[in-house]
Amino acid sequence: MRSKVACALALLIVGNLAVPAGASIRTGAVIKGTVTDAVTGKPFPAGYTVGVDVFETGTLARTRVWIGDPAGKYQITGLPAGQYKVRFRVWDGSDRLIRYRWHNNRPTFAAATAVTVGTGATVTINGSLSTFAGAAVSGKVTERGTGLPLGASGCIFVELFEASGISMGVLNGVEPDGTWRLLGKAPAGSWAALAGYWKFVGGCEQGPTHLDTWRGGASGYPLHPDDASADPVTFATAKRFTVVAGTPLGNINLSMPPAPTCRGKTPTIFGTTLADNIVGTSGRDIISGLAGDDTIKGLGGNDLLCGDEGNDRLYGGPGVDVADGGPGSNDICVAETVFRCES
What we know:
Layout: H1 4-16, E1 29-37, E2 49-56, E3 62-66, E4 73-79, E5 82-91, E6 97-102, E7 115-117, E8 122-124, E9 127-129, E10 134-135, E11 138-143, E12 156-162, E13 172-173, E14 179-181, E15 186-187, E16 189-197, E17 212-214, E18 219-220, H2 232-235, E19 241-243, E20 254-256, E21 269-270, E22 277-279, E23 286-288, E24 295-297, E25 304-306, E26 313-315, E27 322-324, E28 332-334, E29 337-339
């Protein structure tokens, strides 16, 4: 049975297919072309999902379209002048990723050929997509501290990222016994894995119950603020693994810590297990800094600030605020009510 995450991904793709090949996102330069199957020489058949992503090479800002044109044509408009790299992805009717190629049939962002687009120019980039050399990837997701399998809720996913920090774009669901398997295969090369909590799935809205976690690296929430690229600071802590073509790779295991509360309340803002500088909103915030020597500042509202581990600095705003320094030995708190603060 497909997980909530896998089903939600399928719905997301279907919902985006309504974008026609010639739709205008905004005025500006244009990248357009035709996507075909290199094996057959024809567009991919009905029932397959074909996506085209254009990444600005410096910022990794992305513009995306889903191809709904039976002839395989796409058009991305409104691009500022600059350098871009173009990615093509194809899913079959079972949501398995069967093509993952960058412009000129390159396997990764780093290897892809950059395209220079002038102001108001139109550039044609066609994709004749060959199969890629890769392998199946699998592992388990467990709760840190207890070792219990995660996945029964249907809210946990695993996602893979290229060495550049760009997401493969596949949310792989986790089975009740904690097992996850890549939907399709990963291209050969260096990858990182993130276990995440997706609160935008029905029944998961009250979460997170567990923190997003890089394999071998930092935890926090959210560590994947958009569906295109990773948070660069925490991504740098992730342990990489290598996919060898034709050799299935198992034991890509991840351990997610339970999401903490802040004096019994569910935080509205989480930090990371690194040192953070967190600023609240103009409303009421409940902020948990997690590990690391954090600086947390409230703005408007009656805020609840929790430093957790590390030596933290907690500063309330104009509201009536509560600050709890946590188990650190040198916490500084400025608020109307303070707990466990050394100064």
